[in-house]
């Protein structure tokens, strides 16, 4: 069990606390300090069963700047996520070859049932 975690994010802290309260000790991946490669992002998207755009924090000012007036394909979005990890939605739990974005938090608990 691995949690992509940003300790400055309240939702990410909430997810970690809820997992620990439920008796789980996830491996913490501080993805802002140790960014995902493009290959890791592709693997994560497969585990999430989502397109790259679903992984983007679309309200981030940086995303609005990078995507303004453009139609971006999967590979371009993956590349942008790799070089700008703060654009990756959080928290994300990876468990047994699958993953879930913890928004709402219930999604990560559905994954570990």
Automatic annotation (TrEMBL):
<dbReference type="InterPro" id="IPR006659">
    <property type="entry name" value="Arsenate_reductase"/>
</dbReference>
<protein>
    <recommendedName>
        <fullName>Arsenate reductase</fullName>
        <ecNumber>1.20.4.1</ecNumber>
    </recommendedName>
</protein>
<comment type="similarity">
    <text>Belongs to the ArsC family.</text>
</comment>
<dbReference type="InterPro" id="IPR036249">
    <property type="entry name" value="Thioredoxin-like_sf"/>
</dbReference>
<dbReference type="InterPro" id="IPR006660">
    <property type="entry name" value="Arsenate_reductase-like"/>
</dbReference>
<dbReference type="Pfam" id="PF03960">
    <property type="entry name" value="ArsC"/>
</dbReference>
<keyword id="KW-0560">Oxidoreductase</keyword>
<dbReference type="GO" id="GO:0008794">
    <property type="term" value="F:arsenate reductase (glutaredoxin) activity"/>
</dbReference>
